[in-house]
Amino acid sequence: MNIFRLAGDMTHLMSVLVLLLKIHTIKSCAGKSYPCSLCFILLESSSGISLKTQELYALVFATRYLDIFTDFISVYNTIMKLIFLGSSFSIVWYIRRHKIVRRSYDKDQDTFRHFFLVLPCLLLALIINEKFTFKEVLWTFSLYLEAVAILPQLILLQRTRNIDNLTGQYVFLLGAYRALYILNWIYRYFTEPHYVHWITWISGLVQTLLYADFFYYYFSSLKNNVKLKLPA
Amino acid sequence: PLTAEVHDEL
Questions:
Q1: Does ipTM come in above 0.90?
Q2: Of B5, B7, B10, the CB nearest to A80
Q3: Which residues of B touch A84 (CB under 8 A)?
Q4: What do you get for the CA distance between the two ends of chain A, in Å?
Q5: Are A112 and A102 in contact (CB under 8 A)?
């Protein structure tokens, strides 16, 4: 474990916590008898969260952590895997099933057919992988899928008029975690002999590059102290 | 190593 990877994991955890906080805000908001101003805004405007991206992430974790009970790495590793699995599936459940949270989901805007991402990633994983075994192919599939999983969310943000802070921070943290992982891979490449994982590195690089324009608009909105807005 | 490559990253 190195500082880059720990920072990456903590940033990833933060992104999940921000999303859970946002869902909690929506839930607690609607419970009120009177619509406070924030509540009114939250309930009226769509939450800006893409269910498609959340479902893709649940699939990413489900296919990546198949070894959670077979290969014990460390307590930290197991706990983090359980957190990511638990949170990703419960977020999907909230947006799909929870009587209040589902109202803030705008399915007319979240129209990305994520099936078109799953199939090519699966085919690619069958062709390009480190070892042609069931677990390894699904693990590679999870890497390719995670690289593109943010697309429905980024497209939804372009369509969302006013992106609220929590959603913007969620996407930023999600992009930042993988950027930190790239530093981790560079560090491990120079400090551990035989540590070479081209598939992981290239997928992680593509994933981070997909956030490039979001990062640009995110930092611009911070610098100019204006609302985050993505060009359509 | 003979065992399948164990992925130690999340």
A1: no
A2: B10
A3: 10
A4: 40
A5: no
